[in-house]
Design goal:
InterPro entries: Mbt, PcG_chromatin_remod_factors
Shape: elongated
Number of helices: 3
Protein name: Scm polycomb group protein homolog 1
GO molecular function, one term: histone binding
Largest sheet: 6 strands, mixed
Keywords: Repeat
CATH topology of one domain: SH3 type barrels
Length: 133
């Protein structure tokens, strides 16, 4: 029994771009370093991270794991269904205290209240008790 088959032709970018009427991204568009950064993070470390569901919100996060130059992060107060990945050199992560130094608002962990919110809420409760009598 003699089987006959032909090898697929090698992929051709030029042909693909022509067939799809596409333009290749210029090499100048890519900003990655040729040498990947080192990953000195360890599981359990805390940092500030942009919430992947709301890019205007910076939250407390924990490093849950690493894979090469990637970090698996979890926003404090959430569960593993909301873990997300960031590169170690991502602008979406920063050392603890960065928000405070820059005058930005750091969101509390899910289920927690900020101190200022707690103070305002306590004052409001006292105000209501005093003036509702």
């Amino acid at each position: 029994l003699l089987l006959s088959f032909s090898l697929p032709e090698p992929f051709s970018w030029e042909e693909y771009l022509r067939e799809t009427s596409s333009i290749a991204a210029s090499p100048t568009c890519f900003k990655q370093c040729r040498v990947p950064p080192s990953n000195d993070f360890k599981a359990g470390m805390k940092l500030e991270a942009r919430d992947p569901r709301n890019s205007n919100s910076v939250c407390i996060a924990t490093v849950m794991g690493m894979m090469g130059t990637r970090l698996r992060l979890r926003l404090d107060g959430s569960d593993n269904t909301n873990d997300f990945w960031r590169l170690v050199d991502s602008s979406d992560i920063q050392p603890i205290g960065t928000c405070e130094r820059n005058g930005d608002m750091l969101q509390p962990p899910l289920g927690e209240r900020t101190q200022s919110f707690s103070k305002i809420f306590s004052f409001f409760c006292i105000y209501v008790k005093v003036f509702s009598v």
